[in-house]
């Protein structure tokens, strides 16, 4: 029997991860897919294959399963992607190896992941739900495998990719054979029935532990996502959003913050035990208590006793006397490599691909350090060039810039044989939304921003979705220094340029004809003069358009000038959100207002 090349893919991926209401749903769903990939890697290596992607060998410590955020050593496990490529030596049947791999992944999922959750959550499950549970669990994992004799490595790999891509275009629509009858569908996945008992019959201790609302329904997969792992290990997204604010409070109001920590401990506010993360270390409790609008909800959700408003005024109020109340928005950072497939195609050997895989693994490890240790964020997933994280707004721009630079350095080392313009680049999207939005909505916002960045490639895109209404977006290629442009805009807005002037210029654009209209000729001069007139009336003296980052040529094409001014407005309004998120000492604000 000849040697073969075997490609294995695991799913579902995007939809499964996006089905989330809480941080633990999102994190555990992403982590679970990585663990299933790790199980597949173990099976392939145990069957005698040699892995190309990921570049792991038998005996590697990273092959050991890890269902918690950290290994016993205190280090996070390496993420394993859902696509695995392996060389199968002569004498090993690739069909049988693929079948054993599927069985190993299925057994791991059923016995090591799902079964403990079912046992631990017996007090939440409906009666006689075993057959429904088993069917939902057994039909979850999608494993696709394709193999070909290993002739020309490059051509063989391309044919395998095409075969798997073609199979994914076909969908299986098998009917559910087990059902409970007239019961609600899952709140996370409307295609599966709930396995939970009615709200009044649920174990209240488990309800509180896993934050299951009375109106919430979960299928077997959703319950595994919610109840897998230790709840205290998952950092609420609000703790990430307010991490920079907490750090500022520790400097500006240390005694008040310490008093609040003590009050939270005595009142049994939900804890966060991830002392390895800077976003959770200074305030190891649910940071929802730092938002006055959430005091009552926190007491109700966590079953705390007492008057929520009075408790908040007594223990949180003193902080607000020293530092302005936190800005409740967070950045969902989604990054993806550009032209990765092209680079893999041009690197024409298994050895080069293994080196490429190792380089991506190094970048993923560095990305965790950049996000979590240097910028107070939380990394949800880092699978090579694919990154998903939540970052506090004051840290988001510098975090994105550092990730981009790190990726560029890694690709330069891994792709020495390729010209600089042929090497992969990194596009990053920052979706900024309110902390009370669902995880699915925040993730959708981050992915929308990433798609915007992908329109230009090698770019940064920012989308701001304000609860007060309206969405703002802006993007630019990394070659045009988008970080510097936004920081310059933030400086202007904090200095000589009031935000109302930006809105005024936006209204000027709305009053003028749209480019392309028949009567739009000759309007470039009008637009330039109107913008100059608006900026000339800034308090404290006239502000030239050039000083505000606007190049206004009245002789320019109207469409180009109109687009230039509109992009400037978008950049300024996006920058305004970052400026608002900067923690500020209360006394300085009052002095400025006076």
Description:
- The chain is of the alpha+beta class and 594 residues long.
- It has four domains: 224 residues, CRISPR-Cas system, Cmr2 subunit, D1 domain, cysteine cluster (Alpha-Beta Plaits); 80 residues; 152 residues, Reverse transcriptase/Diguanylate cyclase domain (Alpha-Beta Plaits, 2-Layer Sandwich); 95 residues.
- It contains 22 helices and ten strands.
- The strands form two sheets. A six-stranded mixed sheet has the order 6-7-5-8-9-10.
- Helix 2 crosses helix 7.
Largest sheet: 6 strands, mixed
- Count of individual domains: 4
The side-by-side strand order for the widest beta sheet comes to 6-7-5-8-9-10
Provide the CATH top-level class of the largest domain: Alpha Beta
Strand content: 5-15%
CATH homologous superfamily of the largest domain, by name? CRISPR-Cas system, Cmr2 subunit, D1 domain, cysteine cluster
Distance between the termini: 85 Å
Total count of strands: 10
What is the compact description of this entry?
This protein is of the alpha+beta class and 594 residues long.
């Amino acid at each position: 029997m000849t040697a073969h090349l075997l490609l294995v893919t695991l799913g579902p991926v995007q939809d499964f991860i996006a089905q989330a209401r809480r941080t633990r749903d999102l994190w555990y769903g992403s982590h679970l897919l990585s663990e299933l990939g790790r199980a597949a890697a173990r099976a392939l290596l145990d069957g005698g294959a040699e892995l190309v992607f990921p570049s792991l060998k038998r005996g590697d410590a990273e092959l050991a399963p890890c269902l918690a955020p950290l290994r016993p050593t205190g280090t996070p496990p390496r993420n394993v992607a859902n696509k695995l490529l392996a060389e199968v030596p002569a004498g090993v049947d690739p069909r049988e190896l693929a079948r054993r791999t599927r069985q190993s992944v299925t057994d791991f999922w059923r016995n090591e992941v799902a079964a403990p959750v079912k046992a631990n959550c017996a007090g939440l499950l409906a009666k006689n739900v075993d057959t429904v549970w088993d069917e939902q669990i057994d039909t979850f994992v999608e494993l696709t495998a394709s193999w070909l004799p290993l002739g020309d490595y490059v051509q063989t790999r391309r044919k395998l990719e095409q075969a798997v891509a073609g199979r994914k275009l076909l969908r299986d629509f098998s009917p559910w054979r087990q059902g409970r009858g007239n019961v609600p569908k899952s709140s996370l996945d409307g295609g599966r029935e709930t396995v939970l008992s009615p709200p009044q019959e649920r174990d209240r201790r488990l309800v509180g532990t896993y934050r299951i609302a009375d109106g919430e329904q979960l299928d077997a997969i959703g319950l595994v996502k919610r109840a897998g792992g230790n709840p205290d290990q998952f950092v609420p997204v609000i703790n990430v959003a307010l991490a920079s604010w907490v750090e500022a409070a520790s400097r500006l109001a240390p005694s008040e913050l310490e008093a609040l920590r003590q009050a939270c401990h005595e009142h049994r506010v939900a804890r966060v035990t991830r002392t390895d993360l800077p976003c959770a270390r200074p305030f190891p409790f649910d940071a929802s208590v730092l938002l006055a609008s959430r005091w009552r909800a926190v007491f109700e959700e966590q079953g705390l006793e007492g008057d929520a408003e009075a408790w908040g005024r007594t223990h949180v109020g003193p902080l607000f006397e020293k530092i302005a109340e936190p800005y409740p928005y967070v950045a969902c950072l989604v990054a993806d490599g550009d032209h990765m497939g092209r680079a893999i195609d041009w690197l024409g050997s298994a050895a080069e691909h293994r080196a490429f895989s190792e380089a991506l693994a190094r970048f993923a490890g560095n990305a965790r350090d950049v996000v979590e240790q240097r910028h107070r964020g939380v990394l949800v997933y880092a699978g090579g060039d694919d990154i998903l994280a939540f970052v506090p707004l004051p840290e988001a721009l510098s975090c994105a810039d550092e990730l981009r630079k790190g990726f560029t350095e890694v690709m330069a080392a891994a792709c020495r044989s390729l010209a600089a313009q042929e090497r992969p680049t990194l596009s990053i999207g920052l979706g900024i939304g309110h902390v009370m939005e669902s995880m699915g909505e925040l993730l959708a916002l981050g992915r929308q921003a990433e798609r915007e960045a992908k329109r230009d490639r090698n770019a940064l895109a920012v989308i701001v979705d304000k609860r007060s209404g309206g969405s703002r977006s802006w993007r630019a290629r990394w070659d045009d220094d988008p970080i510097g442009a936004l920081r310059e805009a933030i400086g202007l807005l904090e200095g000589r340029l009031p935000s109302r002037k930006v809105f005024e210029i936006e209204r000027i654009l709305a009053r003028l004809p749209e480019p392309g209209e028949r009567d739009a000729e000759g309007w470039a001069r009008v637009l330039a003069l109107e913008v100059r007139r608006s900026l000339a009336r800034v308090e404290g003296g006239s502000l030239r358009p050039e000083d505000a980052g606007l190049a206004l040529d009245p002789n320019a094409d109207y469409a180009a000038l109109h687009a230039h001014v509109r992009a400037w407005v978008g950049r300024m309004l996006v920058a305004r959100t970052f400026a608002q998120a900067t923690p500020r000492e209360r006394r300085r604000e009052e002095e400025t207002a006076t």
